[in-house]
Structures are given as C-alpha cells and as structure tokens.
Write a sequence for this structure.
C-alpha cells in the first residue's frame, strides 16, 4: 500500500506540473523512474505504438482499442481507447500546425486553455492543459518532427482511479 501511495503521489505530479516557460526551469519526468512501480499496480505492462508520430506509451490492460471511423480520422483522430463501458478513455489526434518549439505552442494554447504546463517527458517537450468547455478532460500535447501537434485527450479526470492510470500513461510517453 505504501508503494501504491508513493507511485500515485509522484505520478499525480505529472498532471499538476508547475507552470514553466523559457525563463523558468522546466521539470523533467523519466519513465524509468516509475516503470517498476507502475508494473506492480497490476494493470499489465503492454505498450502501444503510435506509428504516425513514432512514439509509444503504456496502456493499462483495462483499456480496449476502438475503431476510428472515417469522419473522425478526417478530423485528425488517429486512435481511440476506452474501458469496456466507455466511461473512461483516451483519444489520440494529429493536428496541423507549424510550431518551432513547445513554448510557442504553449503560448498559443494558453489563449484558449487553462492550467497550461510545460515539461520534458522522457526527452520530449510536452505540455498539459484543460479547456473551460471540458474541465474533466486533461490534454497532453507535443510537437512531432513535421511541426504538427500530437495530442492526447484523457477523460474523466474526476475519477480517481482513472486519474492515476492516466498519469501513468502520460509518464510513459516516449520515442519509439
């Protein structure tokens, strides 16, 4: 139980990073620091790969992959996962946009979002944020080589168990 509480505490930091921009120190998060503890939670050790952006992430075994329909794919959705009853999930999107760095993207997203936070996640510049229209979803975004934005939406962050799993999922995002 003590291990679980320490894992949860540390991983929740992933979702509540201190705001950081160019003049401030950017927090660094490394999957290697949490991998063994996450495996001990009992949700499997499976990784999925997003071929479109050459990254992988840990996916708890309670999440299943849904088919992406043509309309969703046309709007940028590249993958969908959720639990069996659909009450929790993750959408992965690739969005057009040309940004030079994560700080530029953070400045743009800050115009319409809340709680925008920047970090280095397994060597990748990443930001997390929420939107006023959808406060139960936590978004994670980073730039890919083409300058496009790879974005994940994880929901509902009001469910403690899913919030913990989502934090673990985010902490595991890394180059393939």
């Amino acid at each position: 139980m003590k291990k679980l509480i320490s894992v949860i505490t540390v991983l929740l930091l992933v979702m509540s990073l201190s705001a950081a921009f160019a003049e401030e120190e950017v927090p660094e998060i490394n999957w290697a620091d949490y991998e063994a503890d996450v495996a001990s939670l009992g949700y499997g050790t499976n990784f999925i790969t997003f071929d479109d952006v050459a990254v992988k992430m840990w996916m708890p075994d309670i999440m299943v992959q849904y088919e992406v329909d043509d309309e969703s794919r046309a709007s940028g959705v590249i993958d969908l996962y959720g639990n069996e009853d659909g009450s929790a999930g993750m959408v992965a999107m690739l969005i057009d946009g040309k940004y030079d760095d994560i700080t530029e993207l953070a400045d743009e997203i800050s115009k319409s979002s809340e709680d925008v936070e920047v970090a280095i996640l397994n060597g990748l510049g990443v930001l997390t944020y929420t939107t006023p229209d959808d406060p139960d979803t936590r978004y994670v975004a980073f730039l890919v080589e083409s300058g496009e934005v790879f974005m994940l939406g994880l929901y509902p962050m009001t469910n403690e168990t899913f919030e913990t799993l989502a934090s673990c999922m985010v902490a595991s995002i890394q180059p393939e």
Observations:
- Residues 2-175 form a domain with the Protein Transport Mog1p; Chain A fold (CATH 3.40.1000).
- The helical segments are 2-15, 35-39, 70-74, 102-110, 160-171.
- The two ends are 32 Å apart (CA to CA).
- The first strand starts at residue 28 and ends at 29.
